[in-house]
């Protein structure tokens, strides 16, 4: 996610293909050659834009041999984020109407599950099935109960600025990032921590140099992967026996090295702005690009194995569920003020 106000030209996705596949070492922080479609010898052209309606099916060429069907499930939202699957239904946050929505079966008409005091972002489910919701601007995690929302974790003052995305693991442990700023113009942007809320309520502040932590996934019991949007990086965090991050390393990086905390400066030079993450098959990772027009499935080091093109909108969050990849799509980062529009869509790609 990010704040945006200046219209920019549309650009091709700049995911790079630096590595030689699964198991390759992390790519050094350096500029990398442009991502190219297989065998083309040049950057893949963008499909032409066309109006979409709910239920439309369009087909986009990936780096593989097959086309990927992309359908639009729902339109007219402000900014969709944090897709989560629970008991056969899809849940998402819609930022600027302060709502959490449920799509029955992942396809049905959206239902309002909760209205949140602040802007809702990260979602997750406790082992007992209760829904947790991050309220960004009041730095609180709420629990959704039959009688309404009740505070679950007050994280006021734990990180500078607003909270952001959240992962709740199978033990009920919450991992929560912060955006690193609290002002609309991002003038106070700086490093932030990943918060860990244990099931007993204990809070840990860890890895304090994150550059706009966004999507979070847990590939195994001993590690997390966290997108750092304005570093162009996915970072791997190693966990101790209590699930607390104790060390970090670069899992993948695209574009020039970013050793500063400045949103506008980084946005001007980054090739990929990694946002939402979802685990793929065979140790790969789906990485949404907030400044692109699709989502890539990559190996460690950043090599692209597959690309799903969303054409006129960027992907800010994603969730792979079986053969479906749900995509929260909105206008590209730093091109519009999302709060004033109803331009966000939920789409789904049929993946193998």
Overall description:
The protein has 352 residues and is an all-beta fold. The protein is built from one helix and 25 strands. Strands 1-2-25-24-23 form a five-stranded antiparallel sheet, with no helix packed on it. GO terms for molecular function: hydrolase activity. Belongs to the SMP-30/CGR1 family. Keywords: Hydrolase.
Short description:
The protein is an all-beta fold and 352 residues long.
CATH-defined architecture: 6 Propeller
Over all CA atoms, what is the radius of gyration?
Answer: 19 Å
The major sheet is characterized as: 5 strands, antiparallel
- What does the overall shape look like? globular
Which parts are unreliable, with pLDDT below 50 for 5 consecutive residues or more? 1-13, 16-65
Regarding CATH, which class?
Mainly Beta
In CATH, the homologous superfamily goes by the name TolB, C-terminal domain
DSSP strand tally: 25
């Amino acid at each position: 996610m990010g704040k945006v106000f200046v219209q920019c030209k549309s650009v091709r996705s700049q995911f790079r293909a630096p590595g030689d596949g699964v198991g390759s070492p992390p790519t050094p922080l350096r500029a990398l050659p442009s991502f190219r479609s297989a065998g083309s010898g040049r950057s893949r052209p963008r499909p032409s834009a066309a109006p979409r309606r709910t239920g439309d099916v369009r087909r986009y060429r990936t780096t593989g041999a097959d086309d990927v069907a992309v359908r639009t499930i729902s339109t007219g939202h402000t900014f969709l984020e944090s897709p989560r699957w629970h008991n056969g239904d899809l849940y998402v946050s819609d930022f600027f109407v302060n709502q959490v929505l449920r799509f029955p079966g992942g396809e049905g008409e959206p239902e309002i599950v909760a209205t949140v005091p602040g802007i809702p972002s990260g979602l997750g489910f406790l082992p007992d099935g209760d829904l947790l919701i991050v309220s960004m601007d009041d730095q609180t995690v709420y629990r959704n109960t039959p009688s309404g929302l009740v505070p679950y974790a007050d994280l006021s003052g734990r990180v500078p600025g607003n909270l952001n995305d959240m992962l709740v693991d199978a033990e009920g442990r919450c991992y929560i990032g912060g955006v690193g700023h609290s002002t609309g113009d991002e003038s106070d942007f700086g490093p932030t921590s990943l918060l860990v809320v244990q099931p007993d309520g204990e809070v840990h502040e860890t890895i304090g140099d994150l550059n706009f932590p966004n999507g979070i996934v847990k590939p195994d019991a001993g590690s997390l992967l966290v997108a750092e949007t304005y570093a162009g990086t996915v970072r791997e965090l190693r966990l101790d026996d209590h699930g607390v991050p104790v060390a970090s390393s670069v899992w993948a990086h695209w574009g020039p090295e970013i050793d500063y905390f400045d949103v506008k400066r980084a946005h001007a030079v980054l090739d990929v702005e990694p946002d939402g993450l979802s685990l793929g098959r065979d140790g790969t990772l789906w990485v949404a690009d907030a400044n692109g027009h699709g989502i890539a499935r990559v190996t460690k080091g950043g090599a692209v194995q597959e690309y799903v093109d969303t054409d006129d909108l960027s992907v800010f969050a994603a969730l792979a569920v079986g053969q479906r990849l749900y995509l929260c799509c909105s206008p590209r980062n730093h091109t519009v003020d999302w709060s004033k529009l109803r331009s966000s869509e939920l789409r789904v790609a049929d993946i193998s």
